[in-house]
């Protein structure tokens, strides 16, 4: 973990792009690399090593309706043997030590909706090369699920934090304010019913969050990080002569990605019955691009 944090801190000092530079390049009509997210309930559900995964006995799950997402890190990797940090690193989110240990600064996180550009970088600033994989460290997700409460089904909004460590001063869900003012490790979550005055928060157990990495054997990721890895169907080649934008779409599997341990075996999430969140990890990444 310490090696992972040092690596990210060094990379951050090297590759951070300012918003003003991006705006100037857009005004000059220079070709850009644009990165967006999609959420797919029908995309295959994977485990940590990128293999198809079913729901374990005694658990239940549902496919959330995603509202927004944020990421901490973005890298293009040349091949399956490219180690984390040795590819072309394009983004590293702001971090802080306000909570003691170094952590993602949630106050400064960029949070986007589906199809909204998360990152826009002039292509001239991207290393030329051929890239087979994408790595993205997901840090925050906000989505709607259904909850059974006293025999009634309600919609609830969930905020879940997937980053290795996140400093949260406060965050909100609707009119509900969650004052944290501390670091939270991967797996912290909070939710609030949309039409009823009830909210709660908690922490999933360490190592419970699924982080698919189909090249785990040749290029592993640190425990406790959320660096999801996906393979392009056709390699992305950047040769430095591009005249048009390249748009990378990161399709994330949300297929039964919200998982809990059942007390009442009815397939409905019922926190008041003592049912606890087990896993909030995304279930796979399929990157694609257009020119």
Describe this structure in words.
Strands 3, 4, 8, 9, 12, 13 and 14 form a 7-stranded antiparallel beta sheet that branches. Strands 7-1-15-18 form a 4-stranded mixed beta sheet, with helices on one face. The protein has a 4-stranded mixed beta sheet with strand order 5-6-10-11, with no helix packed on it. A hairpin with a 6-residue loop joins strand 5 and strand 6. The N terminus is likely disordered. The longest helix is centred in the first third of the chain and has 14 residues. It contains 2 helices and 18 strands. With 291 residues, the protein is mainly beta.
**Ranges with pLDDT <50 over ≥5 residues?**
1-22
Separation of the first and last Cα atoms: 37 Å
Helix/strand order: HHEEEEEEEEEEEEEEEEEE
**Average pLDDT over all residues:** 91
β content, as a range?
over 45%
Give me the Rg, rounded: 19 Å
């Amino acid at each position: 973990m310490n090696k992972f944090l040092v690596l990210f801190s060094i990379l951050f000092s090297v590759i951070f792009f300012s918003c003003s530079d991006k705006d100037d390049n857009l005004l000059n009509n220079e070709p850009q690399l644009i990165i967006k997210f999609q959420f797919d309930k029908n995309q295959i559900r994977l485990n940590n090593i990128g293999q198809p995964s079913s729901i374990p006995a005694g658990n239940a799950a549902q496919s959330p309706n995603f509202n927004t997402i944020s990421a901490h890190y973005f890298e293009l990797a040349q091949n399956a043997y490219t180690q984390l940090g040795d590819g072309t690193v394009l983004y590293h989110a702001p971090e802080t030590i306000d909570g003691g240990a170094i952590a993602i600064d949630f106050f400064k996180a960029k949070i986007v909706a589906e199809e909204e550009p998360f990152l826009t970088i002039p292509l001239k600033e991207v290393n030329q090369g051929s890239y087979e994989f994408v790595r993205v460290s997901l840090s925050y997700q906000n989505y709607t699920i259904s909850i059974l409460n006293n025999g009634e089904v309600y919609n609830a909004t969930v905020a879940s934090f997937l980053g290795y460590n996140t400093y949260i001063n406060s965050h909100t869900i609707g009119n509900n304010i969650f004052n944290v003012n501390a670091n939270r490790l991967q797996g912290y979550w909070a939710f609030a019913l949309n039409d009823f005055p009830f909210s709660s928060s908690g922490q999933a157990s360490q190592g419970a969050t699924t982080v698919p990495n189909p090249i785990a054997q040749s290029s592993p990721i640190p425990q406790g990080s959320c660096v999801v890895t996906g393979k392009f169907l056709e390699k992305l080649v950047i040769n430095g002569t591009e005249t048009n934008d390249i748009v990378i779409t990161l399709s994330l599997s949300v297929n039964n990605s919200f998982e809990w341990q059942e007390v009442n075996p009815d397939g409905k999430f019922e926190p008041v019955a003592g049912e606890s969140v087990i896993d909030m990890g995304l279930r796979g990444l399929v990157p694609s691009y257009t020119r």
